[in-house]
Amino acid sequence: MSATSGTSRSAEAPDGRHPGVSHAVLLDTLWASMVSLYADLTTAAAAHGLTYSQAKALNVLRQGPAPMRSLADTLRCDASNITGIIDRLEARGLVHREASPTDRRVKNVILSEEGAAVVARVRDGMHATHQALGALSDDERATLDSLLSRLFRADGDHS
């Protein structure tokens, strides 16, 4: 990448400090990371007869039951798409739906024991991602976790 495009990386300065990295470089790095993660998750999910979207839904449900609307919002898809995803997962016994205790019109999706086991196997099967993360030291993994958590907070507050 050329220096004129704003996407070049600068070498470490003699004093050990890193000069600023452009947003363009960071966007390229994040994009490449997302592509690699997507490919790894897609491959691991397929090994268990799941699509990428089904694996993402199971992964979200690891955190607890979720209303169908919330799942659709989290997965960035419309309600009819999430219905199809959950229908297929439910047919395999990986999730089940039940009425919300506070609003009977709302259906919560709950991960079954088998669903939890499958999503754990999918995550374990993400070999390229595990290899990349394994190349980091404990301190580097903690720093990465902190930075990503700060950048991509679920509540949208990026301060």
UniProtKB/TrEMBL annotation:
Q: Which Pfam families match?
A: MarR
The keyword Plastid belongs to this UniProt entry's keyword annotation = no
Q: Which UniProt keywords apply?
A: DNA-binding, Transcription, Transcription regulation
Q: List residues of the HTH marR-type domain.
A: 23-153
Q: Would the keyword DNA-binding turn up in this protein's UniProt record?
A: yes
The record ties this protein, via InterPro entries, to: HTH_MarR-typ, MarR/SlyA-like, Tscrpt_reg_MarR-type_CS, WH-like_DNA-bd_sf, WH_DNA-bd_sf
Supply the name of the protein.
Answer: MarR family winged helix-turn-helix transcriptional regulator
